[in-house]
């Protein structure tokens, strides 16, 4: 029996998926969670074989939840998403995610993916994989990406400077360079763009 934890902030999707997977002879849904933090806590408590994590959840997202789970227990992690952006795939694979599936797939396909990763294999949806291979690389330097990461939740220039051990002027210069390269007006827009493309 493959023990599965499901995390999705949309109640209807989570409960429907749990019910459909529960019909499979070899799958047992051991927990349903509405956010990333509770998914990590329940995974550490229950030690499921596979964690099925929605990418976009309040608090920490599915990729971050997977990274935290994988650091502590040997559970396999599959990320499901409505918006399968190629850059996010690279971020997920870098975090040790074992499967990446769009929400448009039928429940039977999701069950098959769970079996694949439980058996030690990796699964990436073919369309997402093809898009990832053709997706553009970040034009930003590593330090510019550090600045975006440090300010991703709206931190001030002073906060970013303190966390990266830089002067406020240096951070402003990096922000100016980022906005120029991306053709955007605000740091918030740059952080959203970088996150959507999987650069941060």
From TrEMBL:
Q: Which residues carry this modification: 4-aspartylphosphate?
A: 54
Q: Does the keyword DNA-binding apply?
A: yes
- Start and end residues of each HTH luxR-type domain: 133-198
List UniProt keywords, sorted A-Z. DNA-binding, Phosphoprotein
Pfam families, per this entry? GerE, Response_reg
Segments forming domain Response regulatory:
3-118
Supply the name of the protein. Response regulator transcription factor
Query: Which species does the entry assign this protein to?
Result: Microbacterium gawkjiense
């Amino acid at each position: 029996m493959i023990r599965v934890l499901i995390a999705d902030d949309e109640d209807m999707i989570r409960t429907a998926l749990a019910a459909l997977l529960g019909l499979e002879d070899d799958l047992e849904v051991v927990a349903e969670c509405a956010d990333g933090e509770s998914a990590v806590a329940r995974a550490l408590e229950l030690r499921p074989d596979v964690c099925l994590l929605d990418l976009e959840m309040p608090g920490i997202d599915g990729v971050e939840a997977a990274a935290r789970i994988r650091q502590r227990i040997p559970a396999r992690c599959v990320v499901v998403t409505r918006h399968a952006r190629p850059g996010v795939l690279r971020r997920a694979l870098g975090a040790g995610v074992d499967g990446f599936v769009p929400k448009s797939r039928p429940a039977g396909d999701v069950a098959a993916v769970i079996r694949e990763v439980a058996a030690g294999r990796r699964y990436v949806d073919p369309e997402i994989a093809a898009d990832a291979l053709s997706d553009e690389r970040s034009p930003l330097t590593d330090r510019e990406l550090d600045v975006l990461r440090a300010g991703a939740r709206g931190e001030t220039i002073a906060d970013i400077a303190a966390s990266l051990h830089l002067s406020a002027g240096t951070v402003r210069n990096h922000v100016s360079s980022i906005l120029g390269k991306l053709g955007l007006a605000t740091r918030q827009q740059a952080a959203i763009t970088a996150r959507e493309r999987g650069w941060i």
